[in-house]
Amino acid sequence: MNCPKCQSPMESVSVEGTEVDRCTSCKGLWFDAVEHETALAKANAIDIGDEKLGAEFNSVDRINCPACPNSPMIRMVDIRQRHIWFESCPTCHGRFYDAGEFRDLAEYSFADVIKDIFAKERQ
Q: In this predicted model, what pLDDT tens digit does every residue of 90-101 receive, in sequence order?
């Protein structure tokens, strides 16, 4: 499987029994359907990428699913943290998070409230 953002190979990463696919270059993360929910507690160990690089790749939003050939992914916004934009496949329900996004999703702080205020202004 190749990364839908930078086309580099994805590697399988196992952390405490949770297995996800991580890009060898940009460190973006691919989760099969609902895998992201069980992996949140391990976000710091799974999402090791540079959040600044992830922010750059976040602008790449027209991508195809790495698991379903020729299936365009949909840009989604997290309900609780509207500054987090990820891609989701309408066919297999997998999700792709850019480097740093999954760590950010795993914790909710006052800083996230401020980020959400600025996210509203972008919309």
A: 999 999 999 999
